[in-house]
Design brief:
Length: 141
């Protein structure tokens, strides 16, 4: 009986030892990463409504935040639904790639314009750029 009690006490001591070692390892890893800042995947980015055009759901001066991907068009499955007759069902896509935001026209009928130049391929967006979609105009923030 004494041998069984000794073994039981020894097992409990070993389990407590492993718990303490595990907790110390977690605390060490936490203190090691305190000074490091995590890189942000993207910077704050958005579109300001300069001219709402024929879209009653947009307000002049309003800001549309852009995180990873933003789609615009007349179809209900877009993130920004435009009520403009000059806008295609799936008109454009803005997305984050590497370190830049990209604008892509999705083969729209009337086109997407960046700084009054029609977008033919994917283009990089910069702060201050003006995007015209149908009768609406947006400014990149």
């Amino acid at each position: 009986m004494n041998n069984l009690k000794f073994i039981f006490n020894l097992v409990i001591i070993v389990i407590i030892y492993f718990i303490i070692i595990y907790a110390l390892r977690i605390m060490y890893n936490d203190t090691k990463s305190v000074g490091k800042k995590k890189k942000k995947k993207s910077v704050d980015f958005g579109l300001e409504v300069v001219d709402a055009g024929d879209n009653h759901n947009l307000k002049k001066g309003g800001v549309i935040p852009v995180n990873e991907v933003l789609t615009m068009g007349r179809s209900e499955d877009n993130m920004v639904i435009l009520e403009d007759r000059y806008v295609s069902s799936h008109h454009l896509k803005i997305y984050f790639r590497n370190t830049d935001y990209m604008l892509e026209d999705l083969n729209s009928t009337n086109g997407t314009f960046l700084n009054d130049v029609r977008v033919r391929n994917k283009v990089t967006l910069n702060k201050g750029d003006k995007i015209r979609v149908g009768t609406s105009t947006f400014k990149v923030l």
